[in-house]
Amino acid sequence: MSVLLIEAFYGGSHKQLMDLLQEELGDDCVLCTLPAKKWHWKARTAALYFMQTVPASTNYRSLFASSVLNLAELAALRPDLGKLKKVLYFHENQLAYPVQKCQERDFQYGYNQILSCLVADVVVFNSAFNMESFLTSIGKFMKLIPDHRPKDLEERIRPKCQVLYFPVRFPDVSRFMPEHKLARLGKVIGVKRHGDAYQSESLPGQQQGRALMRTSSTEQESGVCEAQPDLDTTQHEGLPTPLTAPLRPSEAEAPEGTNPCQEEDKQHLTFNLSSVLSGMDYQQRPLHIAWPHRWLEAVYCGCYPLCPKALVYPEIFPAEYLYSTPEQLFKRLQNFCKRPDLVRRHLYKGETAGFAWAALGGKFRSLLAAEPREDL
C-alpha cells in the first residue's frame, strides 16, 4: 500500500476517479473518503478529520488528493504525510468557479486551494483551461486581501503544474452502432484492449446497454444531438419507447444461460419491427437532444457535439462543433431538425482514444510512483 488516496468529497467524478485508481492499483493503495454532501464544510474541516482517521504506515510513498482537501493543513497536522510525494488533482477550481452571490467567507475556498498548491509537489489539472484559469486568476484573487499581500504566487506554483485529462473507461458499445461508425469505434476499442494490458471496458455490474443509456443522457450543460438508431429510443430510463415497449420485463434482460447471439437477434428484430410500425425511415426520424454531464462518453457513444465556443470546449472539440452565439445555436439546431440525416450519417472528426484509461493509465502510475521525502 504505497499510495494513499484521499477524497474529501467522494461523489460524482471525484468518486469515479478514486474508484478507478483504487481498482487499478489494487493492494498497492489505501483509500480514505468523506461522503459527497455539505461541500463547504468538507473544504473547511476535512483535513482535521483525516488527521485522526488516516492510518499511520511506513509504507506510504505518495499521496493523491483532490483540491477539495486543504492539503497544507493536513501536511502540518500529520508530518508523516507531509514527507510523501503529494499530488493535488483539480477537477474544478474555486478561482474561476461561478458563484451566485459573492460573500467574504467564500475567499477561504480559493485561498485553501492556493495553499494546497504551494505545499503540493505536483499539481494536476483535468484540462489546460482549468489550469490557466486558475493560475492567471491568482494575482487578481490575492488583491482581495486588504493589505500585506503575498507576491509572485503564480510563478511559484506554475512550474509544478501539468494537465492530465480525466481518464474514462469506455464500454464496448459496438452492438448499438450503425455500420458506418463501427470503424472509428474500433480504433478506440483497439487502443484500450492493447494498451496498458486492459482487458474489459464494461462497467462493473452493469450490462453494456444500461451503461450506454446512463452515459448518453445524463445531467445538463449544453446541447448534443443524438445520432444513433438504438439510442434515440432510450433517452429516458423507465419510460416506454418504440424500442422497449413491446418487450416484457422478463425479455428486456437475458436470463443466465441465454445465448447472447439469440438475445442480440431478438433486439434487432424488435427494432426493425418498431421502425416498420412507425412508418418512418431511420434517417428521417426526429432527433433527440441530450444535455450530458459527461461529453467525451457522449461523443464516444455516437452523439454529435454542439458546444459553446468558450470554457474548455475549444480545447476538446474541433471548431465545426462549436457555436459563438445563441443565434448560431438556433440555426444549427434548425438545420439538423430539417435534415436529421446530416447528424446520423456524420462521423465525428475529433478523437476520443486519448481520454481512455488505457492511454492515460501509465501516466497516472508514473505520477504516483515516488520515494518518501526526508527533508521535511
Structural features, described:
The protein has 376 residues and is an alpha/beta fold. The protein has 2 domains: 3-167 and 359-368, Rossmann fold; 174-352, no CATH class. It has 17 helices and 11 strands. The chain has helices at 12-25, 39-53, 71-77, 79-82, 107-119, 128-135, 138-142, 153-157, 179-194, 208-216, 249-252, 260-278, 295-300, 313-316, 326-338, 340-344, 357-368, and strands at residues 3-10, 29-35, 62-66, 85-90, 122-125, 161-163, 224-225, 289-290, 304-305, 307-308, 322-323. The strands form 3 sheets. Strands 2-1-3-4-5-6 form a 6-stranded parallel sheet, sandwiched between helices. Strand 10, helix 14 and strand 11 form a beta-alpha-beta unit. Residues 191-279 have low confidence and may be disordered.
In brief:
By secondary structure, the protein is α/β, with parallel strands linked by helices. The protein contains 17 helices and 11 strands. It has a 6-stranded parallel β-sheet with strand order 2-1-3-4-5-6, sandwiched between helices. A 3-stranded antiparallel β-sheet has the order 8-7-9. It has a two-stranded parallel ribbon with strand order 10-11.
